[in-house]
């Protein structure tokens, strides 16, 4: 039974190291930026068909990605204690405000990011981007 306390101590040290090295706000911003790139690319690729028929599956999937991205942004704002849906003045002030890490909101943020990442993977699987390689066969 001496093994259990040693194992617990090792696990506590690993968790402490991960907590120190993880930069949740930066990771969240990176995920959100990646999502924005996917969303913008999809919107530009499908703009004509979605303008003509917004009820197409690809169009509703793009709209769902936008909604999930907004939820993740709200989660980051809540986690960091930044104003939700800020005005231009609040946004300028918040850009100079460090994240104050609201621990109870971490679950909301991580769940929102997981849902967004799953939806992006599903979107890419269901609606692959057209090939950019050209040339003759």
CA gyration radius, whole angstroms? 20 Å
Oligomer: single chain
Number of domains: 1
> Would you tell me the overall average pLDDT?
82
Helix-strand string: HHHHH
Q: Could you provide a short overview of the structure?
A:
The chain has 137 residues and is an all-alpha fold. The chain has helices at residues 3-21, 24-52, 57-80, 88-94, 106-126.
Which terms would index this structure?
single chain, 137 residues, mainly alpha, 5 helices, 73% helix
Set down the secondary structure blueprint.
Blueprint: H1 3-21, H2 24-52, H3 57-80, H4 88-94, H5 106-126
Helix pairs in contact: 2-3, 2-5, 3-5
Could you characterize the architecture of this molecule?
This protein is an all-alpha fold and 137 residues long. It has one domain (24-126). 73% of the residues lie in helices and 0% in strands. It has five helices and no strands. It has helices spanning 3-21, 24-52, 57-80, 88-94, 106-126. α2 runs antiparallel to α3 (57-80), α2 (24-52) packs across α5 (106-126) and α3 (57-80) packs antiparallel against α5. The longest helix is centred in the N-terminal third of the chain and has 29 residues, at 24-52. The chain is elongated and about 45 Å long. The N and C termini lie far apart (68 Å).
């Amino acid at each position: 039974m001496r093994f259990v306390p040693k194992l617990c101590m090792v696990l506590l040290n690993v968790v402490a190291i991960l907590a120190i090295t993880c930069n949740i706000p930066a990771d969240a911003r990176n995920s959100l930026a990646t999502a924005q790139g996917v969303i913008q690319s999809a919107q530009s690729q499908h703009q004509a068909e979605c303008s003509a028929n917004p009820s197409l599956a690809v169009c509703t999937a793009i709209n769902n990605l936008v909604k999930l991205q907004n939820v993740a942004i709200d989660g980051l704002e809540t986690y960091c204690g930044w104003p939700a849906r800020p005005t231009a003045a609040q946004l300028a002030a918040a850009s100079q405000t460090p994240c104050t890490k609201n621990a109870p909101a971490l679950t909301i943020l991580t769940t929102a990011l997981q849902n967004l990442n799953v939806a992006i993977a599903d979107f890419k699987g269901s609606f692959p981007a057209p090939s950019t390689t050209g040339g003759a066969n």
